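Extended Data, panel c. Modelled sequence:
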Amino acid sequence: MNKITWGEIGKATEPGEYRYRFGFVTVTASDIAIWQQYPNAVFTVIEPSVYSEQRIFKLGTFELRERPNWEES
């Protein structure tokens, strides 16, 4: 399961689409609010439909981590 950190999208401060490993990821104001409150939060990345023409990922559930140790993902 793919995970994403705030740093992987340049610590975005505005909602929008940001470059991700294999395309783009949509980040909402709610996602940013969570990262601002919990900078070490890690979101699950939801892949687009196989029928979609664009590779735009979405953020799903998140985990709170005490320290940034992304190798565990």
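The chain has one domain: 3-65. This feature is highlighted in the accompanying rendering.
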